[in-house]
Structure formats: structure tokens, C-alpha cells
Design brief:
The protein is α/β, with parallel strands linked by helices and 767 residues long. 32% of the residues lie in helices and 17% in strands. It is built from 24 helices and 26 strands. The strands form seven sheets. The protein has a six-stranded mixed beta sheet with strand order 11-16-15-14-12-13, sandwiched between helices. Strands 4-3-2-1-10 form a five-stranded parallel beta sheet. The longest helix is centred in the first third of the chain and has 17 residues, at 6-22. The protein is globular. The chain binds 1-deoxynojirimycin. The site of 1-deoxynojirimycin has 8 residues, from loops.
Length: 767
């Protein structure tokens, strides 16, 4: 045990002895958590009000600014660190820096309560994995969990204790820049992936030095920003909130996520940061969750701009009473909570509850045993960006690629003598594949597509290259948080070279899409087509060579409808991380048979947004006979590529959908099975998807809802039977009674390859 002040050690032992003597119950429940509770209480009992408020204060380390810069200078931060006025820091990077910050607290403050240090480790620390939206397209919970575990292991080796991930905001609007950071439009898939990520980051033991605390964010509704504009108003009703937005958060709470972060948006008139029903009634009391809630960056202060608080003091009062336990970068708690307690506007019990939650997580992480447990220079030198981690990143990346179109079976490419032209603004880009929120992923450290192809081919294949055009006028711009990108709308000087290269090749691999910083926080777009002159480049290339494969690199669903009509093959390659080029080459040459499925619908037109498969029926449902009912006169109603969609180099046939019974009571169970055969010539993986529809409810129910999936391997010619269990968990929803219930009635069920699955059966649930 190092550096823990004697006063805390004595207090912990004393209180343990007292409680053991006084209360038998305490002795009986003396498990790990029981012990932690005693320790938390004993530390709290030693704290002054100012020290308690200090725990609720989080400062930015000034190393990496991920929000509008704050006004507090480094001297003031240091003074507060020394006098116990800071409970947490964010963006303090490297073992040296985190040790320094921790030392300042441990060697100067009265109680020496260790800091918890957080950072946005969203899809890797230095070894970068696909952006979360891309990784979600793998529908592979094991690799998702493992990629989070590797991210945690690298981050912890660099001194980080806590990540602000996973983002589990269900998001339905491709215009919203942060769609890249989540798992798409479906609450069931988002919940499953969210839990896998929490388990990956936190492992089974938070006291280990290679696991870190996770953070379920943003609570709640952030992904429903009106018109896809970041930070914008959210207006959803209570039932939509419970049925569509909250399920992933409930799942994360149940999985033991250590922390939550609230969100910037208001929801039905109340900013989430000041939302008592969400934070106290639902999360803490309703779900019995005992972690702590950190505000989003400055979101307590932003309640003034929302028009919900008259000044910072008022904002601090609202946020603390509503259940925001830690203030990220508003400086509202540290400035005003003491006075608010003295004035009786915030009860000391509210402060105690927040501080206990924060201390609890620090105890769980083992920081009281060793505040420097993550400060190991050897690990920092040897365990980050390793070959092993790079190899795993490639595995995840190839499984995240979605084959959208392969009309003429242009893919996979053979590795025999031919010329491959690699063209496009993203073809030799070593930075874009890292995506936004790339933590310490170093600039230009990804394997570019061109490099990946060159690594893969034998000498008999000639690889030629032309950039064609650039997407922006200055590639450096946009790397800073608030600066907008300037798109290249005029410069086509590279077209001619690209056309010549295309003309002289057998096949063209065209890398177009979005730059890394076109998506992410504050990066919403009204136009989701190809920015700049990329569309013109595509058309010019197609005129001289029909054998074009687009490798789309992007952070959101894009409008690619022209390309989908005219280009024979399209691979959705997202922003795939450090090993992007190698992973794409694996798929291009058939060394890996693509198995990804879209976690979001791709529209024909931006005007269809928000677009999602699990819509409601309406009173005048859309149908081929009534195309103008609940649709558009000038555009399709359906998606160009629907949720769950993705092709393979082989083909799968679904048949024999069988239910072991067709009638069950509300607490009953049905086994549904289906046979899937690999009818093609290659081995492959398929994501078998189960959807249901509750035909009549006390509230209207979605047209289809994903309720199960399984990713299976099938050898060429092989048949497998997949069985799902349908029970009350599958069928329940948040009903008009404000409870999760199964309502008796008729249900439809589909199993298939995507959300358009047509193999269907029905069953009844009876009282
Ligand atoms: C604001 C973002 O909304 C949040 O997701 C992030 O964790 C914080 N900034 C800290 O960087």
C-alpha cells in the first residue's frame, strides 16, 4: 500500500471495526462491495464541505482541448489540486503527465484522495480500430469487446484511468456528425454492442492495471437532435424515450458501467444536465445504479444559454439537485456549491451522495491502494501500438467492411497479371482512415489503401496511382475542434492524370468519401453526398473504364445513389483505423470474404433523413399501390441500402422457418429455428437476423424490430440450423401503463439476411 495517508487508513479500519461490532448485517454482507461501502463512508466522514465539492470538480489538463477552451489558468488549477479542490482531470496524457498531476494531489492535499483521470478513448488509444459505427457493422460482439480491451490496455499503459466511451446514443439522422461514434439506428444492436464495449474496457476486475472505467454517454436523447444539427433540441415523448433511447443505457447500467455522462441537448424543454427525472428517478433510483454521472464539457454552464438557468450559480443548483455528480469544465460547482449548501438550496445529502458515488468508483479502480497503478513507464514503452495490437486492428477492420454491391462479380480480384489503378483523394491518404476521435493515433499513421494493395499483390500485378482531386483546399484545416473544413469545389487539375491511369488499367479501385473530420462532434452536414469535385471525378473515370470498384471511406451513411446505379462494385470501408489499407486489400482480393452488415440505413436522398427501418406504420401506410401515402412524390420512401444489409462473395439461402409452438402465455417461451445454407462456392460468414412485430398495442409499435442475431460461419455447401428463443424479454415494451410489459395479442416474426427479411411466421400471446 503506497502513499495513502495514515488518517484515511485509520479511519477505514476504525469504521470497519465499529460497523462489524455494531451491526451483524454489515459483517454478513462483507463482500467486496460491502467493504467498499464502508470505506467510502469512512472517507466521506473525514471530509470538509469544500473537500467534498472538490471531488465533484473536473479540470481539463490543457494537453488536448476537446471543447471550447475554459478560462481557468494553470496556476489556479495547480492551487486547487494542492488543496483538494479537484476530483478528476481529463486530457492529461502520458505516464509522466498523469504521475505529475497525481503527485501534486498526493503530496500536497490534506486527505490525499487520488484523482481519476479520463480521456476520450473512443476507438483505440494509439492503435486505432474502426470508428464505432464501422466496427458495429461487424455485428461481432467478441471482436468488439476485444478491441475495447486493447484500447483499455493501451490507455492504461499511458496513465489513463477512465474512458468517455461507449457512446450508445441511438442515432437515426445521417446529417448528425456524431453518428460515427455510435452503433447506429437500432436500440437492440446498440445495447448489445454497448455492453460488449463496457465489458471490454472494464474487464472482469477494475482493480487490474490494464482495465479502465467506462462511461455510458450521452444521457439522454443526444442522437435525436432535430434536423441532425449537433447540440440541437430534442423533442421525444416519454414512450419513445423509454422504448428507443433508454434501452442501451439500461443495459449498460445493468452491465455495471462505472460512470455515465449526460448530454448537451434539452429533452422536451429540460436540458439533460438539469434533468432530475432522467438522472435521479430513472437511472439512479429506478435502475438502482451506483456509479457517478459526469456532466458533458461545460454543459452545466450551458444551461444559461439554453435559457434554463439565470446564471452559473443557478446552473450549479439545478445540476447538483438533478443528479449531475461531477462538473466537467463549467467551474460552476467549485465556484458556487458551498454557498448553495449554506443557503439551503442544495442539501448536504445531495453532495454526500455525489461524492460517495465518485469515491466508490475510485475504490473500485483500486486507486486508494495505489494511486500510481497506471503509471508504469515500462508498460507505456512496450505495450502500446504493438504488432499484436496492429494485427488485431486489421482483423476488426476487415470484419467491419460491408459489400454493398457486386453486380458483375468484379470482386474479389484475382492476384494474376493485370493493371490495377488506385485512384481518388483518399487512395493514398494515411490520415483519414484514423477517423475522428482518434485519441493518440498519430497523424498519417494508417496504412493507406494504396499501401495495402501494394503489400498484397505479387510482382505480376502492376499498381498505378493518381489522386484525381483533393476533398479540401487545405488538409491541415479542420484538425482543430472548431474550424470548418473548406471543400475543394473547383480544382480539377488532377483529373487528366487520373483519367489516363484509369484508361490504361484493367480495373479501377476508387477511394472517395469523407475526410476524417467531416464527422464527429460539431460536424453535422446538410449535404451527405460527395463533397467537392469527387462526383465529377467518379463520372469522368467511369467514362473511360467501366470496371470501377468504389471503396467508400466515411463516417456516416452517405447519399451514394448515383454511384449505386452506375458503378458495378461498392465496398463500404468507413474509417477503418490503423490497418485500413491492409484490411481493404484482404477483402478486395478475397483473402477475407466480407461479412459486415449496415447498422444504419443508407438513403437515396438526404431529404429522407431521419431514416430508419423501425418506423411506425401510420394510419395511411406506404405501399406500392399508394406510393404517396407516408412517402414522397419525388423520392423513394425506403432506404437505398437498408439496416442489416450486406453482401458476401458467396450466397446464403434461408428456409424452413419453424416455431415450436404458436401460442404462449405472457411468461412463455417459443423456440424459432431456421436453416441457412451456403449456396455459393466460397466459405463465408452470415449475420442471421430476427425481427418481430407486435401487431396491436396499447401504444403503436414499430413495423419491425430487431430482437436477435447470430453471426455464423458456413463452409461452401454447408447448412446450419440457428435457433432463437423468444420470451418476455423479447416481447416486452414500455407500455401505456409506464411499465415494461408483454401485451397479449398477435405477433409476426421474420428471420433473414437484413431488415427486409421476408421469411415470416406468426404466433399469439395469450393472457
Ligand atoms: C464533449 C463530448 O460531447 C463528449 O462526448 C466528450 O467526452 C467530452 N467533450 C470530453 O472530451
Amino acid at each position: 500500500m503506497r502513499k495513502i495517508p495514515l488518517i484515511i487508513i485509520l479511519a477505514i479500519s476504525f469504521i470497519s471495526i465499529i460497523s462489524c461490532k455494531k451491526d451483524k448485517k454489515v459483517v454478513q454482507t462483507d463482500n467486496a462491495n460491502g467493504k467498499i461501502e464502508q470505506k467510502v463512508d469512512s472517507v466521506l466522514a473525514l471530509m470538509t464541505l469544500a473537500e467534498k465539492i472538490g471531488q465533484m470538480n473536473q479540470y481539463n489538463g490543457s494537453w488536448d482541448v476537446t471543447g471550447p477552451a475554459s478560462g481557468v489558468n494553470d496556476k489556479e488549477k495547480e492551487t486547487r489540486l494542492k488543496n483538494g479542490g479537484v476530483g478528476s482531470m481529463l486530457n492529461v496524457l502520458s505516464v509522466k503527465a498523469t504521475r505529475e498531476a497525481q503527485k501534486t494531489v498526493m503530496e500536497n492535499s490534506r486527505l490525499k484522495i487520488p484523482l481519476i483521470i479520463g480521456y476520450d478513448v473512443i476507438h483505440g488509444y494509439k492503435t486505432i480500430f474502426p470508428i464505432p459505427l464501422g466496427e458495429s457493422a461487424s455485428w461481432d460482439l467478441d471482436i468488439i469487446k476485444e478491441s475495447a480491451a486493447i484500447a483499455a490496455s493501451e490507455a492504461s499503459a499511458a496513465g489513463i484511468h477512465w474512458t468517455f466511451a461507449p457512446m450508445i446514443d441511438v442515432s437515426r439522422d445521417a446529417r448528425w456528425g456524431r453518428v460515427m461514434e455510435g452503433s447506429g439506428e437500432d436500440p437492440y444492436l446498440t445495447a448489445k454492442i454497448g455492453v460488449a464495449r463496457v465489458q471490454g474496457f472494464q474487464g472482469d476486475d477494475l482493480t487490474k492495471n490494464n482495465t479502465i472505467a467506462a462511461c455510458a454517454k450521452h444521457f439522454a436523447g443526444y442522437g435525436f437532435a432535430e434536423a441532425g444539427r449537433d447540440y440541437n433540441t430534442v423533442n421525444v415523448g416519454e414512450y419513445e424515450l423509454h422504448n428507443m433511447i433508454l434501452p442501451p443505457f439500461k443495459a449498460a447500467a445493468e452491465a455495471g458501467v462505472a460512470t455515465f455522462m449526460n448530454s448537451f441537448n434539452e429533452i422536451d424543454g429540460i436540458p439533460a444536465t438539469g434533468h432530475k427525472v432522467l438522472q435521479r428517478d430513472i437511472l439512479k433510483d429506478g435502475w438502482n445504479w451506483d456509479g457517478f454521472m459526469v456532466s458533458d464539457w461545460g454543459s452545466i454552464g450551458e444551461m444559461i444559454a439554453h435559457g434554463y438557468a439565470k446564471d452559473k450559480k443557478h446552473a450549479a443548483e439545478i445540476a447538483a439537485n438533478a443528479g449531475s455528480d461531477m462538473d466537467m469544465e463549467s467551474y460552476a460547482y467549485v465556484a458556487h456549491l458551498e454557498a448553495l449548501v449554506k443557503e439551503g438550496k442544495v442539501k448536504e445529502g445531495v453532495i454526500d451522495d455525489a461524492v460517495k458515488r465518485i469515491l466508490r468508483v475510485k475504490f473500485k479502480l483500486g486507486l486508494f491502494v495505489d494511486p500510481y497503478k497506471y503509471c508504469n513507464e515500462e508498460r507505456e514503452k512496450n505495450e502500446i501500438f504493438t504488432k499484436e495490437n496492429q494485427d488485431f486492428s486489421r482483423e476488426v477492420a476487415k470484419k467491419s467492411i460491408v459489400l454493398l454491391k457486386n453486380e458483375t462479380n468484379l470482386l474479389p480480384l484475382t492476384k494474376t497479371g493485370k493493371t490495377i489503378a488506385v485512384i481518388g483523394p483518399l487512395a493514398d491518404d494515411k490520415d483519414t482512415p484514423l477517423g475522428n476521435w482518434r485519441a493518440k493515433g498519430g497523424r498519417d499513421t494508417a496504412v493507406s489503401l494504396l499501401e495495402g494493395i501494394q503489400n498484397a499483390v505479387p510482382p505480376s500485378i502492376k499498381v498505378t496511382y493518381a489522386e484525381g482531386c483533393s476533398i479540401v483546399t487545405d488538409k491541415g484545416i479542420g484538425s482543430t475542434f472548431l474550424l470548418p473544413l473548406k471543400f475543394n469545389k473547383t480544382d480539377k487539375s488532377g483529373f487528366q492524370k487520373a483519367i489516363n491511369v484509369a484508361k490504361n488499367a484493367d480495373v479501377v479501385v476508387l477511394a472517395i468519401g469523407e475526410m476524417a473530420l467531416q464527422t464527429g462532434e460539431g460536424r453535422s452536414q446538410a449535404d451527405i453526398g460527395f463533397a467537392g469535385v469527387q462526383q465529377e471525378l467518379l463520372e469522368a473515370i467511369l467514362k473511360v473504364n467501366k470496371n470501377v470498384i468504389i471503396t467508400l471511406m466515411n463516417g456516416r451513411p452517405m447519399d451514394i445513389s448515383w454511384a449505386a446505379q452506375h458503378v458495378p462494385s461498392i465496398l463500404e470501408c468507413w474509417h477503418l483505423g490503423s490497418q485500413s489499407g491492409n484490411a481493404i486489400a484482404d477483402v478486395l482480393f478475397g483473402d477475407y470474404n466480407p461479412s459486415g452488415k449496415l447498422p444504419v440505413s443508407f438513403p437515396y436522398h438526404v431529404g429522407q433523413e431521419p431514416l430508419y427501418y423501425n418506423q411506425k406504420m401510420t394510419g395511411r401506410p406506404f405501399s406500392p399501390q399508394h406510393v404517396t401515402f407516408s412517402g414522397y412524390r419525388d423520392a423513394p420512401k425506403e432506404a437505398l441500402y437498408p439496416f442489416g444489409y450486406g453482401l458476401s462473395y458467396t450466397t446464403f439461402e434461408y428456409k424452413n422457418l419453424q416455431l415450436d409452438k404458436t401460442e404462449i402465455p405472457v411468461s412463455g417461451e417459443i423456440k424459432v429455428s431456421v436453416e441457412i445454407t451456403n449456396t455459393g462456392k466460397r466459405d463465408g460468414e452470415e449475420v442471421v437476423q430476427l425481427y418481430i412485430r407486435d401487431l396491436v398495442g396499447s401504444l403503436t409499435r414499430p413495423i419491425k424490430e430487431l430482437k436477435g442475431f447470430e453471426k455464423i460461419n458456413l463452409k461452401s455447401g454447408e447448412t446450419k440450423t440457428v435457433t432463437f428463443t423468444i420470451n418476455s424479454k423479447t416481447l416486452q415494451f414500455y407500455t401505456v401503463n409506464k411499465k415494461w410489459e408483454v401485451e397479449p395479442g398477435n405477433f409476426e416474426i421474420w428471420i433473414g439476411t437484413d431488415s427486409k427479411a421476408s421469411l415470416k411466421a406468426t404466433f399469439n400471446v395469450v393472457e
